[in-house]
Specification:
This protein is an alpha/beta fold and about 550 residues long. It has 17 helices and 26 strands.
Length: about 550
């Protein structure tokens, strides 16, 4: 078993430059940015020196709020080289959310782009920091954001009060080479280098503190299991701000000298184009991304023969989708992965050469140097193979904690160092794990525990269904009832009764959805995860159900 790497991200990029200097590190298909490992290392050095010249130093926090720009990638490496902590902001955030993040994270600067869907990031910054329009560049002060001193634009446009990306490197002349080397040498693998904010579905988002050691080693092991090497080319449609982008994609490539083919943002068409014309050998994505590619009307026009590997993760992988990816996209070495941001992220992963049965029925076995087990959610006692309980994990990959939130940290990581994931799982005798649902998503109907995932897996097998999600809705007598949200395949007609009849042939009567709601899409996070809490709220609105389970109106077609 290979030893864990005791290096920083900056040292990792330096080593990649030495070993894979002439290998193409990154190529964008949507903009003019293509670099070898030697060249991108030089770009990162120039920006890192510029940041030092601007007064940033080890331990400072800098936020980035942008899509997958080339500048984002370079900034990630540059901040890591000098020990500046990169705070990554979700591209779905609106004004109040980015204001909260900047304040809670103590960010001294923020880098923005205007390529985020319908957001005008520059306008939002002027709204939350009106002083920006008149402040001297780099001398911003706002009483609500007392740490924020500077705002940077990643676009070519010039804005009042903003630094521009293209000017940063020029500040490097204020720093000698010896001073730069000294700043880089101050960094330790155990330093926190990245803060990522959780989705915040049950309250304000929490800042997950990850170290060089956490994410470099997790990325190395992920790439190992995929069999990555310097001839691999990974299409990256997942967002950089998420651990899927930073670790599973970017760093998994750098640790193996592989080529990154990032997309500024995901669309199925861009994925198919990148795979064919850049001869990608690997592709990452959440199940919804793969479903949308497979069902695209132009799917059969593209050549996927170059593909062999990739990761499908972020939410449970439907069996038929994994099989279709293997059969129709040539991804024979695709791997499923399970983890959380708090675990850097991977706790388990299938090996590329595992059987398709293992890939579709499990999330793999534990990563090297990682301990995983199943415990009773109530008593905390260890459970044997075959019994469902909470998945907990311990090892090098566990976060340092939540930033400025010791209470939440103590709830997540127990006194013995085990991260409590809140996910339900079963381990088989060979050490492979099957995720069975979220503890908080478990439906309790009249005292019976019902797993949404079990019903979802059945619905995926219905020939009329493209995708399905199951949630609970309140009921005054039974406590909760089962509600299925269903996306039908193009051109297909189906009724609520047909869905119920299909499920009733596969599962016990109490697991048959009482309500079926047909939709065109699911609410997603920017990283592609389905937001079940929004589906629960939508169900109550669509069905006219109050929080106590009583109906707002009597004549409900689904009742």
């Amino acid at each position: 078993m290979p030893k864990l790497l005791n290096i920083t991200i900056g040292q990792l990029l330096d080593q990649a430059s030495d070993k894979y200097g002439t290998v193409q590190a990154v190529k964008y298909i949507e903009c003019d940015y293509e670099r070898t490992y030697y060249e991108i290392n030089k770009d990162a050095d120039a920006i890192a020196k510029g940041l030092l010249g601007l007064g940033f130093k080890k331990g400072d926090h800098i936020c980035v709020w942008a899509t997958n720009y080339p500048q984002w990638l370079v900034l990630f490496f540059a901040t890591a080289k000098i020990g500046v902590v990169l705070v990554t902001a979700n591209t779905n955030y609106k004004q109040d959310e980015i204001s909260y993040l900047l304040k809670q994270s103590d960010s001294k600067a923020i880098f923005i782009s205007n390529g985020i869907k319908d957001l005008d990031c520059q306008k939002i910054m002027y709204t939350i920091c009106p002083e920006l329009k008149t402040a001297k560049v780099g001398k911003l002060y706002n009483a609500n954001l007392p740490e924020l001193r500077a705002v940077f634009s990643m676009d070519d446009n010039s804005y009042d009060g903003f630094y521009n990306w293209k000017d940063i490197a020029s500040f490097g002349v204020l720093v000698s080479q010896s001073e730069y080397v000294e700043a880089c040498n101050l960094c330790s693998p155990q330093d926190v280098i990245n803060i990522q904010y959780t989705s915040g579905t049950t309250g304000f988002p929490k800042g997950v503190m990850l170290t060089h050691y956490n994410i470099v080693n997790n990325a190395k092991q992920i790439g190992d299991r995929l069999g990555f090497g310097s001839k691999d080319r990974l299409c990256i449609p997942v967002p950089f701000f998420h651990v899927f982008g930073i670790v599973v994609a970017i760093l998994a490539c750098v640790t193996h000298g592989s080529t990154m083919i990032p997309l500024l943002y995901y669309t199925p068409l861009k994925v198919m184009h990148a795979v064919e014309f850049e001869k990608c050998t690997a592709l990452h994505g959440v199940p919804t991304m793969f479903i949308n590619v497979l069902s695209h009307r132009d799917f059969n026009k593209y050549d996927f023969s170059s593909l062999r590997a990739g990761i499908m993760a972020g939410s449970p992988c439907p069996r038929h989708v994994m099989q279709a990816v293997v059969d129709n996209m040539n991804m024979r070495d695709i791997s499923s992965l399970y983890g959380q941001t708090e675990a850097s992220p991977a706790c388990t992963q299938c090996h590329g050469k595992d059987s398709i049965e293992l890939k579709v029925s499990t999330v793999g076995c534990g990563m090297e140097y990682v301990e995983n087990k199943i415990v009773d959610p109530i008593t905390g006692l260890d459970l044997p193979d075959g019994e469902q309980g909470e998945f907990v994990s311990r090892g090098y990959h566990i976060m340092k904690g939540y930033y400025k939130n010791p209470e939440a940290t103590a709830k997540a990581i127990d006194k013995n160092g085990w991260l409590h994931t809140g996910d339900l799982a079963v381990r088989d005798p060979n050490g492979y794990f099957r995720i069975t649902g979220r503890i908080k998503d478990m439906i309790i109907r009249g005292g019976e525990n019902i797993s949404p995932k079990e019903i979802e897996d059945i619905l995926y097998g219905f020939e009329k269904v493209q995708d399905a999600q199951v949630v609970s809705v309140p009921n005054p007598k039974l406590g909760e009832e089962v509600c299925a949200f269903v996306i039908l395949k193009d051109g297909v007609q189906c009724t609520k009764q047909q869905v119920q009849e299909y499920v009733s042939t596969k599962l016990a009567r109490h697991k048959v959805p009482t309500y079926v709601i047909f939709v065109d899409k699911f609410p997603l996070t920017a990283s592609g995860k389905i937001q079940k809490f929004k589906l629960r709220e939508q169900a109550k609105i669509d069905l006219g159900i109050k929080d106590d389970g009583t109906f707002v109106m009597v004549d409900i077609d689904n009742s």
